[in-house]
Amino acid sequence: MAMSGLLQELRCPICLEFFNNPTTLPCEHTFCHSCIQGTLVAQGPRCPECRATFLQDQLRPNRILRNMVDRVHTELGVGTCPKHQECLRMFCVTDQRLTCVVCRDAKEHYGHVFQPISEAAATSKEELNMALGFLLKDNSALKKLISLQRLEIQKTKV
């Protein structure tokens, strides 16, 4: 299996991000804990993949998969939390910094808004592209003004 295919296996089929607290159902399908909890509330106790029913107390953390995701994050250069030595998986919009899952759940971040890192990066990229568009437009307008100024200077010299 190619490396990109292997990395794909470490992604949650619901949010499409690397697993965050991977949780396995009795049917052996795995999802992020928060994703399966959201699905449980929205759609009831059915596996999003195979529709098999389950009880909430049948959810099990998948530590092996979590260790694999942590290892991939380390190999890919994803940072670790200096407080908890956990992978930085979330972006605290309120504080504008990367956090681990333990920090996210801590008292100091109570009520803060969080995004997966990839979502925060996409948002930042959109904002930067918009700013770049405005700058390019302004630059173009300034170049036109400079050209007009040069023409006026040439006319006054003649």
UniProtKB/TrEMBL annotation:
UniProt keywords, alphabetically: Metal-binding, Zinc, Zinc-finger
SUPFAM superfamilies assigned to the protein according to its UniProt record, in alphabetical order: B-box zinc-binding domain, RING/U-box
One GO MF term attached to the UniProt entry: zinc ion binding
Domain (B box-type) ranges: 81-117
SMART domains named among the record's database cross-references: BBOX, RING
InterPro entries: TRIM/RBCC, Znf_B-box, Znf_RING, Znf_RING/FYVE/PHD, Znf_RING_CS
Pfam families reported for this sequence: zf-B_box, zf-C3HC4_2
Domain RING-type: 12-51
Identification of the protein by name: Uncharacterized protein
Organism: Scleropages formosus
